[in-house]
Amino acid sequence: MAAPRTPDPNRRNPESTKAILEAALALARDQGWAKVSIEGIAARAGVGKRTIYRWWPSKGAVVLDAYAARLQDRPYMNAAAAEEGDLRGDLVRILGETWDMVSDSLPLLASLIGEAQHDPDLAERLWERLIGPSSEPVQDRIRRAQAAGEITADADPFRAAELLYGQVYLRLLVTPKPLDAAFLEDCIDLALHGLLKRP
Amino acid sequence: MAAPRTPDPNRRNPESTKAILEAALALARDQGWAKVSIEGIAARAGVGKRTIYRWWPSKGAVVLDAYAARLQDRPYMNAAAAEEGDLRGDLVRILGETWDMVSDSLPLLASLIGEAQHDPDLAERLWERLIGPSSEPVQDRIRRAQAAGEITADADPFRAAELLYGQVYLRLLVTPKPLDAAFLEDCIDLALHGLLKRP
Amino acid sequence: MAAPRTPDPNRRNPESTKAILEAALALARDQGWAKVSIEGIAARAGVGKRTIYRWWPSKGAVVLDAYAARLQDRPYMNAAAAEEGDLRGDLVRILGETWDMVSDSLPLLASLIGEAQHDPDLAERLWERLIGPSSEPVQDRIRRAQAAGEITADADPFRAAELLYGQVYLRLLVTPKPLDAAFLEDCIDLALHGLLKRP
Amino acid sequence: MAAPRTPDPNRRNPESTKAILEAALALARDQGWAKVSIEGIAARAGVGKRTIYRWWPSKGAVVLDAYAARLQDRPYMNAAAAEEGDLRGDLVRILGETWDMVSDSLPLLASLIGEAQHDPDLAERLWERLIGPSSEPVQDRIRRAQAAGEITADADPFRAAELLYGQVYLRLLVTPKPLDAAFLEDCIDLALHGLLKRP
DNA sequence: CCCTAACCGAGACGGTACGTCCGGTCTTAGC
DNA sequence: GCTAAGACCGGACGTACCGTCTCGGTTAGGG
């Protein structure tokens, strides 16, 4: 009975969408996050501001979409199809694949997370679409290692992923030290062995 | 010899400084980060905008100063003077003390880190003044544990702190799950033992 | 063919325009020129500053428009339709009509001319819209007087108007003496007869 | 008994005064009136703002003083010493001498008069120090012409000067037409003869 | 095959805040 | 006690974007 408030997705202009996402990504990467604005995206995409506001709630959401779309355009990593090897080697491979996808756009990812601190809606989208899923392969591998008895059975795979990824995001967002492939490998070793000396 | 461009700190008005920091903190805590503006701080502090721009480069820097000043005003518990107990217990105490200081202003801390993602100068100040120093007690305790043979000698204390704190900051900034004292304790246990099953 | 830089006048909001002009006039008359500011006009008119800057280059231009609009709203007495009388009488009538329109806002007119001294664009607008046209009736009457042989044929009507009006503007802008209707009449007599004793 | 509010002129530093006046004049002539500010004058003169505010009430007053000082430095016109010639010739000479002094700084003079429209104190100073006195020689010559019977005895010399100078100031301040020596001569002729045809 | 509703570009609008300039007052140190 | 220097409060500047809105024009589908 009530008139629908949401716009009809079928009538969405794919060219405009594409132009907007490309413009957002280009601005974010070329001039940095601070220079991104809805107004700027609209101008660069040759699009009315209205068209952006119709489909996205904020500039963060646009950039997130643009960034996610770019990641999906990549020659998709086939973690699933990979042969199962030893635990450490598999973790190195999994993190390495993710690393290859994002290593050239770390500042953009950091800016998105930064923006999400004052934008709960963006925070949710970011977690649901990008960050949450990205730890699934690690959690899966942890679970298989638990089944194989390599890892304590009562460890929570989600917490295990946090132990591993926490180091990475801390570097990305806070610590003024390099974040590179070698560091990732060290993170894996440290997470696997922990701090206590083993007998 | 060259004429200094920076203003003379001796002529700084301490009352203005105090009013500005208080206004910044009040705004940040009451209305949230997004509502903080140089203009708003100046108005609430009864101060010219120029006076703020003279001494701080950005609103982030003001809020950081305000936040740091508040932390230092606390009746400081000095971890160093504490009786040395067992490793896990000391870590629980150290993290607990830090936690007590920041637990009522986590969103503000998160916003500061978020802002720092697009503001390298703020990022540096934040690390130097707030975040870097906060992990020193943990690193110290790790070093003593290494001397005592509890922890592998070749582990880097800084990396050890990253293993521990990474989990905390990941929760704070990214993961949509609760961050509380119980979680901190779990972080310590996980970091100490690592993922691999011990024989 | 080239993209126009100027905004499209068709999209101009007539209500905003009206509110701006009224606010400008009210501020200029109530508080005096010095208290007029774009910011103040915008606030009083309930309008964004941008809307003013979009259509006017300076506060002087706004006030000029407001002042000119107010003059045109007056129940216009058309000198042209007036019965032709003797030269002096007609001049008295013409100056009197102009006088009636501006006598209650002389400081505003003076301020506009004052402002125009440092603003060539305003000076041009002021001359084109207000001051230049105001001497036309005098020039017309001079021309008819030349045709009737009352005035030397080789006198330039524009210069004649300058002789007459110069005295008036000198009083308005420079001389600290009263400018009133009686003075206007004396200006006419002096301009008509000149200084040299007639035989 | 009461402490004097006005500063003691004897303690005035002549070097500062000179530097201020020179700086004011240089700024006014080089960058135009709009770029003149107390702050700018102080910086250029190497003087504290306080020193300017102590001796002048406004930037207009400073520039007026600077301008007046410059005029007095000129090789002073000796109108008084001039041989008395015929009326028209003397007027041409008197106006010509004034013209020679100001012709290279007309915009500055116009700006001063413009500023005086919103600054009654400046208006008074301007009239007393510069503009009023400048018409004295003309009034004197008019009086002598009246005594000689060349000019109607009942004409007010002050009004006569207004008739003559009004044309000049109108050009300077309002009319977008050239103001040059030839024009001055025409002003004299028109003022002497008036508009009415002589029998 | 036309009508009408939604999309689209463009951009004007009321606002908020920006970072800068300057006005006029006050403080500090030096002579 | 004047001076150079400049910090201070305050107000306005002109600009950048925000998110909403209105305007024609185009496009798509249901009558």
UniProtKB/TrEMBL annotation, chains A, B, C, D:
<keyword id="KW-0805">Transcription regulation</keyword>
<protein>
    <submittedName>
        <fullName>AcrR family transcriptional regulator</fullName>
    </submittedName>
</protein>
<dbReference type="InterPro" id="IPR011075">
    <property type="entry name" value="TetR_C"/>
</dbReference>
<dbReference type="InterPro" id="IPR001647">
    <property type="entry name" value="HTH_TetR"/>
</dbReference>
<dbReference type="InterPro" id="IPR036271">
    <property type="entry name" value="Tet_transcr_reg_TetR-rel_C_sf"/>
</dbReference>
<dbReference type="InterPro" id="IPR050109">
    <property type="entry name" value="HTH-type_TetR-like_transc_reg"/>
</dbReference>
<dbReference type="InterPro" id="IPR009057">
    <property type="entry name" value="Homeodomain-like_sf"/>
</dbReference>
<keyword id="KW-0804">Transcription</keyword>
<feature type="DNA-binding region" description="H-T-H motif">
    <location>
        <begin position="37"/>
        <end position="56"/>
    </location>
</feature>
<keyword id="KW-0238">DNA-binding</keyword>
<feature type="domain" description="HTH tetR-type">
    <location>
        <begin position="14"/>
        <end position="74"/>
    </location>
</feature>
<dbReference type="GO" id="GO:0003700">
    <property type="term" value="F:DNA-binding transcription factor activity"/>
</dbReference>
<dbReference type="GO" id="GO:0000976">
    <property type="term" value="F:transcription cis-regulatory region binding"/>
</dbReference>
<dbReference type="Pfam" id="PF16859">
    <property type="entry name" value="TetR_C_11"/>
</dbReference>
<dbReference type="Pfam" id="PF00440">
    <property type="entry name" value="TetR_N"/>
</dbReference>
